[in-house]
C-alpha cells in the first residue's frame, strides 16, 4: 500500500527569501509557492492604460499607483501575490521590512484577466481581496470583451459589483473618477 505523498509546506519567510533571489515572481498561498506566468503584450498594454488613467485621477490625493512589482499580502487567506496594479492611499503599511515591499493596505486592486487567470481572479482572489480591511474597490478588466467590473465595499461592509461594457463607463469612487470603457480599450484589439 502506498501512503499519501507529503507535500513540503513553506513558511512566509521561506517565500520572501526565495523571492529575493529569483528572477521569476511567485505567489504564496497557504504554505505553497507557485511561479506566476508572464502576461501577453495585450495584457501589459491594458494594465498600463488603466494604471495611467487611475494615476491621472489621483490629483492631490495622498495616493500612489503601483504596478505589479508591489506584492500584496492577504493575511486572512495566507496569500501573497502581485496584483496587476494597486493604489495605496496614505502611508504604505508593510508586512515585514525587507528589500522588497509587501503592502498590507491597498485601497484599490486591479487585475486584468487572462485565459489562465480569469476563474482565479474572479473567484478565489475576489473572496481573498474582500477580506482586506483597507480595500475599497477591486477592478477586474476582461481580456475577452470590453467589460470592466468594479467590486466595491458598501457602507454596511458588504460588497456590490458594477459592470461597464462597450460604450459605457464605471465609477471608481475611491479615487473620485470614472473609467470610460472605450478609453481603457482604446488601443486594444478586443472588440
Automatic annotation (TrEMBL):
Pfam families: Uma2. Residues 13-164 form the Putative restriction endonuclease domain. It comes from the Bacteria. PANTHER family: GLR1098 PROTEIN, RESTRICTION ENDONUCLEASE DOMAIN-CONTAINING PROTEIN-RELATED. This is Putative restriction endonuclease domain-containing protein. It comes from Enhygromyxa salina.
Amino acid at each position: 500500500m502506498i501512503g499519501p505523498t507529503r507535500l513540503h509546506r513553506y513558511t512566509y519567510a521561506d517565500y520572501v527569501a526565495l523571492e529575493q533571489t529569483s528572477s521569476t515572481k511567485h505567489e504564496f498561498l497557504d504554505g505553497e509557492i507557485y511561479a506566476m506566468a508572464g502576461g501577453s503584450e495585450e495584457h501589459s498594454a491594458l494594465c498600463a492604460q488603466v494604471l495611467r488613467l487611475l494615476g491621472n485621477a489621483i490629483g492631490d490625493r495622498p495616493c500612489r499607483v503601483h504596478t505589479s512589482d508591489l506584492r500584496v499580502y492577504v493575511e486572512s487567506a495566507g496569500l501573497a501575490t502581485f496584483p496587476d496594479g494597486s493604489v495605496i492611499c496614505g502611508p504604505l503599511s508593510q508586512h515585514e521590512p525587507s528589500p522588497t515591499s509587501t503592502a498590507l493596505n491597498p485601497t484599490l486592486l486591479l487585475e486584468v484577466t487572462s485565459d489562465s487567470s480569469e476563474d482565479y481572479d474572479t473567484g478565489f482572489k475576489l473572496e481573498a481581496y474582500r477580506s482586506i480591511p483597507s480595500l475599497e474597490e477591486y477592478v477586474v478588466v476582461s481580456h475577452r470583451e470590453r467589460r470592466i467590473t468594479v467590486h466595491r465595499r458598501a457602507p454596511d461592509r458588504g460588497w456590490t459589483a458594477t459592470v461597464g461594457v462597450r460604450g459605457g463607463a464605471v465609477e471608481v469612487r475611491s479615487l473620485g473618477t470614472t473609467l470610460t470603457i472605450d478609453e481603457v480599450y482604446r488601443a486594444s484589439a478586443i472588440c
